[in-house]
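Hi P.,

Sorry for the delay on this. The queue was packed all week, but I finally got your sequence through. Input first:
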Amino acid sequence: MNYGMTPRSQSEKTYLSPTDLCYPYTYSSPPPSHNRFAGWWGHDRPTRFAMPSTFSPIRGAQGFQQSNPCVLAIASLRGSLKIFKAAGMMQPIRERSIKLTGEFERLLKSSEFFVPLEQVAQRKWIKPGFSIITPSEPGKRGAHLSLLFLPIGSDTMRTVSKGLSHHGVIGDEREPDVIRLSPVPLYNTLADCERAAQVIDKILRSLRVREYRL
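Then the structure:
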């Protein structure tokens, strides 16, 4: 490692030593790949959630971040522990979570656009719809449900994601076809679950009407 400062040019990048945070050091481009640690936070932001098979580091020292959040981010979570304590800690929170996610699952499965997962594997779906790929048993899942949008490989997921965001329903995209939705037991309600299911139906219905007109 080079702990001294070297003359910099446009082709050089500055890094921080993992053993001594006081002294920045530089490497000429490209940075060395030997013994390099790679993690989620160090991956290039635009492609991070696409989860490519190869690691694409952020330029600069941030590319050496690991899968652990930074100290400042962890420190900010201390305040949330007070909220968890006021809510009774994990048992009542988990009980409420099971109730909310179970009701959300029931609402989704009653949708005209829901397709059982076994049917997705048996045939190729060409109409907009969705399936649930998260296990139904509460003991095998957390709070969220992963929705697989159909047809697989189409733009249905992205269209639904934009529509959900427009209506104030915030989900988590997983390329290429999955959106994760999680009723949060600390503040979400059964009414929120019902509204989210209705918004999904509304978006998919508009997609089918659009295809029919075409």
